[in-house]
Amino acid sequence: xxxxxxxxxxxxxxxxxxxxxxxxxxxxxxxxxxxxxxxxxxxxxxxxxxxxxxxxxxxxxxxxxxxxxxxxxxxxxxxxxxxxxxxxxxxxxxxxxxxxxxxxxxxxxxxxxxxxxxxxxxxxxxxxxxxxxxxxxxxxxxxxxxxxxxxxxxxxxxxxxxxxxxxxxxxxxxxxxxxxxxxxxxxxxxxxxxxxxxxxxxxxxxxxxxxxxxxxxxxxxxxxxxxxxxxxxxxxxxxxxxxxxxxxxxxxxxxxxxxxxxxxxxxxxxxxxxxxxxxxxxxxxxxxxxxxxxxxxxxxxxxxxxxxxxxxxxxxxxxxxxxxxxxxxxxxxxxxxxxxxxxxxxxxxxxxxxxxxxxxxxxxxxxxxxxxxxxxxxxxxxxxxxxxxxxxxxxxxxxxxxxxxxxxxxxxxxxxxxxxxxxxxxxxxxxxxxxxxxxxxxxxxxxxxxxxxxxxxxxxxxxxxxxxxxxxxxxxxxxxxxxxxxxxxxxxxxxxxxxxxxxxxxxxxxxxxxxxxxxxxxxxxxxxxxxxxxxxxxxxxxxxxxxxxxxxxxxxxxxx
Length: 560
Hints:
By secondary structure, the protein is mainly alpha-helical. It is 64% helix and 1% strand. The chain has helices at residues 27-31, 36-64, 75-94, 97-111, 119-141, 155-159, 164-191, 204-236, 249-283, 290-303, 319-347, 356-379, 381-387, 391-421, 427-454, 468-498; strands at residues 6-7, 550-551. It has a two-stranded antiparallel sheet with strand order 1-2. The longest helix is centred in the middle third of the chain and has 35 residues, at 249-283. The relative contact order is 0.13.
């Protein structure tokens, strides 16, 4: 199918009005900005760096696992490598990526506001995030931590010889940034919506960011508390988790997973919002069952706090508790299934356009569905006992967190890139990258399901030879996946110099963010918008946006 097209820039047209990118110049104007759009770009730069720093740990892991013997890393170095990879990726990429980049940039635009409710707090949250991330990278590079990203006790408090306290402090400090951002988002949605923008006229992306922010505010203090208890035991010898001195290591697991399972939804709920925006735009149809989609988002954010015990089926908890957590885990899968069904129903009889953002969205639906179905396996007590601490768990986690969240992030960037930068990227390369990401991810992580079911334990750097073929497949897939991650960096950068100018609404999308210029002015809107209808008012008979001249946005050189 032909892609949704954009109007051609008119040669000799007068220069555009100043945007948020050009209204102020100089390094100080960026480092001291309170503009939510610029702060989003600061987060984008920082999170991109952390993504590739954390990815370096994954590269070391995959190279080591290419053969059954320890050719590159010792046992201790391998432990430090996957801890490094996990800590950076979870707390400095997956959790902040979509909320702090796309949420920061789009939330005020989507609700017709000039900025977030607390602009200075927004900037402060970035500086806190940078301080925490710098401390984490320094800690992990200057000796590292060998406990794994979960910081399990009593290994963390009594036996590890790594920089546990400094790593825990980095994660602890990052929580202040998370809470500050969440409070800002909640206040903005409550207080700064445009006239006429009632709750059930909000875009689903706004609902997803709002629900995620509530989870952040409620769950992050629990993580801070458990990290403070680790500090108290390791630094001052207070017996909290050490069983040799009367402590309870299972208490740590309860506290940690009470935070960390809701943290799964901190990572994936924003992805749901992104995919909802992409599917409805490129199907040219209203979202099927909008109200059910909203209730599903809120249901996930609530029930997500009640299922932490399914991470602890082999911890010695009672059978009754395991059965209760198993049932709740099946229940929390229902709203996720509703969302997949509604996305599919939205596509049904739609005038689907297979541009890059839509391909990323379809890849997300496929990967998330596989991850969700395998989550049901792990919610079943007998199956979970069989595959606990195997590569089956690694594969499930990555299908949800990485396959889902990263596909949504790249899809969202491709969709809103013209709005963020005012430039169009080469569509052909973007489609190629989206397809390659889906298949590269499958080649990397699907073999891990097979390995895990056959009994290959995770966190082992030496393994029986019969598993080598699966590790070789995974490592080869990782090469494809890495290229799929790197390629968009190239064509996005290309677009900044040679990309054609983007009109205000290149996709013919609905939503307030498309009713201002690309890129937006400093205060978002020249005239405060008024909302008179619900979201996603698409008409299937119009497959694309009205334009004087339609043309696929292939690379043709920079236009005036």
